[in-house]
Amino acid sequence: MKRFRTSLAAKTAAVLLALAVGAGGFWSTVFILYQWDTLWLGSGYYDSNDYYSDLYNRSSQVHELARLLQNQEWNGALPYLDQRRLDMLEEALSPERTNFRFAIRRNDTGTLVYSNLEGAASLDESVHAVEQEELSLTQNGAAREQDYVVWNGKEQYYLLYIALPDAAGTKQLVTPEDAGLAAQYGYTFDGYTWNYDEQMDSRVTTSVLALEYGATDPLTVQDEFWDSYQDYQQYASYLPALAVLALVLDIAGILLLVFLLRAAGWRKEESRPRCNWFDRIPLDLLAFGAFWAIALLLNAGDAIAFGLNVSQLATDLLVGMCVITVAILGCVLAFCLTVATRIKTRTLWSNTLICMLCKLIARGCRAAARSWPMTGRVVVLFLLYLAGTLLTTLTIFLIPVFQGFVLYCLCRWTIQWKRVREGTGRIVGGDPDFKIDTHKMYSDLARHAGQLNDLGAAIGNAVDERIQSERFKAELITNVSHDLKTPLTAIITYVDLLKDPALSAEDRAKYIETLDKKSQRLKRLIEDLFEVSKAATRNVAMHYAEVDLAALLKQVQYELADKTEASGIDFRWQLPEERMPLVLDGQKTCRIFENLVVNITKYGMPGTRAYITLMPQEHGAQVVFKNISATELDFSAEEITDRFVRGDRSRNTEGSGLGLAIAKSFAELQGGTFSITVDGDLFKATVTLPDTNQPEQPETLPLPAAPDADAQSAPQTGGALPAGI
């Protein structure tokens, strides 16, 4: 049994079988119960529900016929439509068209008004059993609705206005003195108002008719009685077998339900029942959803049932009814199984929205108790409010003053607490530099806010240091490894070649020259790496002196003349003739300019012009380097100032990718700025240097973000996008 209980295939088959058996058992049981008189009573057709249903329908026609006949007697003639109804009813109730027989008589005299009996036959002899009832009809019954009363303020009673039975609708005023006239129309006066009795109203005519009816035995006409009789005989032949089938299906459905309830929650290789995702849905939410799902299904089923009642059996209607039934049973079965699982896992109450709400309220109360140092202020203030209210009751005008003061204190504390909470959210949300304003704040909240401000500053510093360290290490590992490996591999290769004793002197000299170039490149890479590392850790010795910035740029122009001419780029040096003295580190400043010029020679488009412009500023100077990139600038202006970024993504050209990083670091160490602008293929580097006697080193040196153009090594201007950086 346990094997079947934990088997997914067995439970799936049981569910499908339960739905099929449940649908069949439900409808067979409903049909058997509907035909209880046929199956269990066995009293015959004339005692069945089918017979009385048809009899009721025909009696309604008799009621309408009696009403029309009585109106015809009262009014002499009927309106056209009423006359048409009368003719149609007489035809429908004729003995040639129905087995229904009836007689309409005056209840007081027994006089026959109308009957569809043939010849001199009596109703008792013609029908199986006679049904009897009374029908009361009233003429001018709405006359009283036109009567009304008017209050007589002087006499302190109501005056009565009666609608007279004439075509003009005349209203007759009746006073308490007109008792005889009032009684004629059914009114009596009690000294204050008027009481009405319809039996005394001469305007109203009442007729009570006795109706007798039944169906012939035997049935001689093929009408609805004939059809229902045939159905009754057919039902009587197979209803016993259907009853047995319904009983079997019901028992099987119950057994399958018991099996599924016992198997609910059990899985293979599990020692105890477990909840699945469906069982974790809050039970009250699930019950609400199931209720509305079943309601919608029942609404759809009602429409299908109506179609079955008004039309012949159709395949689509039967299929629709089966689908609706299975869907409803599926909802009920799923709910029962999840309840069983929750009972077994003891989550029936805990996994409800009501329970969750109760727990939430309980946690809130416990949190308030634990936070008494904060909540205590509110409680104490409330108690003071009560005490102050009692004390100020002696002087009424002080009550609103005191209450206003208390409300002000509460609102002020709430606003300050909101400020602290929002500040905490800002700091936790990634803005550690945010500072909570503690001005005029309550002492406890001010201390709390101050601690949060200190914490935010500490977090910001720690994050910056961490990011700086991790970023530098990652860049060193991923980028420098390649740049160091390339010349080192070449050196190893040429050393192996030099070991060949058969190598000619000419080849040996060429290999030695190549080894010298590669080793010098490796040396420059290592030196650049050390410089960037020292700049990042602020471990750089600065030697300040007065430097003529214009002369320094001319020196760079002269020293790099070979490179600029070989690049095929027309360099335009726009330098002032007058001196431009600034207190700077001449070596570091020269390195900035060399890196930027070499960057242009490596990544600028041959045949274009490059512009180097020196412009004085109010407190310093600005140098702008502009050129056209030889390749598409697919870097952002922010990205090209990162360390180890080259203009060639493949890193096949020489250089360390540290040129722009070194330039940026040296500019910022001297209190200046370094920025890159990219506009299409136009690359623009702007260096701003301050005019200070001894610039202070920044407390936190920004990570040399941008590498490129490596000075002496003809750096690939690290940041230099193929833009000519």
Kindly describe this structure.
With 725 residues, the chain is α+β, with helices and mostly antiparallel strands. Among the domains are: 46-131, no CATH class; 143-203, no CATH class; 264-370, no CATH class; 371-431. Helices cover 54% and strands 15% of the residues. The protein has helices at 2-5, 8-34, 36-41, 49-75, 80-92, 123-126, 179-184, 224-263, 283-310, 315-344, 353-370, 372-392, 398-428, 443-498, 505-536, 549-559, 561-566, 586-603, 659-669; strands at 100-106, 112-115, 131-139, 148-152, 157-163, 171-174, 185-189, 194-201, 205-215, 545-548, 570-574, 581-584, 609-617, 620-628, 673-679, 682-690. The chain has a five-stranded mixed sheet with strand order 11-13-14-16-15. A four-stranded antiparallel sheet has the order 2-1-9-3, with helices on one face. Strand 13 and strand 14 (620-628) form a beta hairpin. Helix 8 (224-263) runs parallel beside helix 10 (315-344), helix 14 (443-498) packs antiparallel against helix 15 (505-536) and helix 15 runs parallel beside helix 19 (659-669). The chain is elongated. The chain starts with a helix and ends in a 35-residue tail after the last strand. The model is unreliable at 649-653 and 694-725 (pLDDT under 50).
Instruction: Give the overall pLDDT as a whole number.
Output: 81
Strand order of the largest sheet: 11-13-14-16-15
Secondary-structure-derived class:
alpha+beta
Radius of gyration using CA atoms only:
53 Å
Biggest sheet layout: 5 strands, mixed
Distance between the termini: 79 Å
Helical content stands at 40-55%
Portion in beta strands: 5-15%
Q: Give the overall form.
A: elongated
* Extended strand count: 16
Contiguous runs where pLDDT drops below 50 for at least 5 residues = 649-653, 694-725
Query: Treating each run of at least 4 consecutive H or I residues as one helix, how many helices?
Result: 19
